[in-house]
């Protein structure tokens, strides 16, 4: 584990998607509020509303945790929101924050929020240290292969800013998560209530020489550009213009250029890219994650759900799918269940063959699954691509999402 980071970010302003997770009462709402407040990402009317609400409770200072209360109010009105997304920016970087609930019954919410995150902040209370839910959050981060993890040890002001206590928690976290396969973890001692090491470095912990949380978020290297990965272009829509067909969708990884030899999956048909359209303009090349239209040199039977690839690293075309999963629905998933498997833009029928010995999976369960699909599906391992290595299972009766899966091709 480390408390430092080497900056590799250039002067360009890019975007970091990150998720927060923490047990109930660990101070996550206050941390999010402090991060938004001290980075000057809170509108004046929002802050005034928080100040009034805090004053009505007899508090002399604004309760920054109230900045997330709008979400709770929406729930009281009968609106269900799994994850609250917050958007803010600094001169160095833009941020998309997925604020996920902390209780064990909302594990599926963390899966939703962290599935696209490049960094996860796992919050612990300095007085309680690593608890069962901390280990569960770490397991989810490992399962989803989140590239960067921050262990934020909160409420340091309540333990006298003690270095030894912080280091015990860091060592305990490392010991208990050693087998999860987490990436390098950065540990930061913070006090969200006071503001220590959240946006500004603390003067109360001179023994800590690492970055404040926001400083780390601004400098942490964003994951390798998707444009460097093998080219994967799931077809979302076929556009006909006279005798010409364009295949439209998002290039989820890699690059495509006019003249590239490509393969269409699952048919295996090959052709050459004759044209690329980006926002209505002809282009010689396209790079992930652009949304584009592609014209092929030959007439091929290509439809929604097919995948166009280029280069020697082809996906695995298979009907037998093995994956790690998180069950999201309230109804259980059992061996023999018939489901729909949605992978990128392709949806096929499938049957649950095995649940690694378990009788069933219920809401928030983490497990393993083996499926047999009615048609071949072009898959990458989730360890290689979080876009083309992921899928969801859908209830064919009502269209409800049942399970989120991460493909294992080993």
SSE order and pairing:
Blueprint: E1 14-22, H1 28-38, H2 44-56, H3 69-76, E2 84-89, E3 93-99, H4 107-114, E4 119-125, H5 132-143, E5 148-154, H6 163-176, E6 185-189, H7 213-219, E7 231-234, E8 237-241, E9 244-250, E10 255-257, E11 261-265, E12 269-278, E13 281-283, E14 285-287, E15 291-296, E16 307-310, E17 316-327, E18 333-334, E19 338-343, E20 346-354, E21 360-361, E22 366-379, E23 390-394, E24 401-407
Parallel strand pairs: 1-3, 1-4, 4-5, 5-6
Antiparallel strand pairs: 2-3, 7-16, 8-9, 9-15, 10-14, 11-12, 11-16, 12-13, 12-15, 17-22, 17-24, 18-21, 19-20, 19-23, 20-22, 23-24
Helix pairs in contact: 4-5
Give a structural overview.
A hairpin with a 2-residue loop joins strand 12 (269-278) and strand 13. With 410 residues, the chain is an alpha+beta fold. The longest helix has 14 residues, at 163-176. Strands 7, 8, 9, 11, 12, 13, 15 and 16 form an eight-stranded antiparallel sheet that branches. Strands 2-3-1-4-5-6 form a six-stranded mixed sheet, sandwiched between helices. It contains seven helices and 24 strands.
Strand pairing plus helix content: what structural class? alpha+beta
Share of residues in strands = 35-45%
Largest sheet: 8 strands, antiparallel
From the spread of the alpha carbons, the general shape counts as: globular
Overall mean pLDDT stands at: 87
The helix fraction, in percent, is: 10-25%
Specify the number of helices.
7
Q: What are the low-pLDDT stretches, counting only 5+ consecutive residues below 50?
A: 2-11, 73-81
Radius of gyration: 23 Å
The count of β-strands is 24
For the termini, the CA-CA separation is: 28 Å
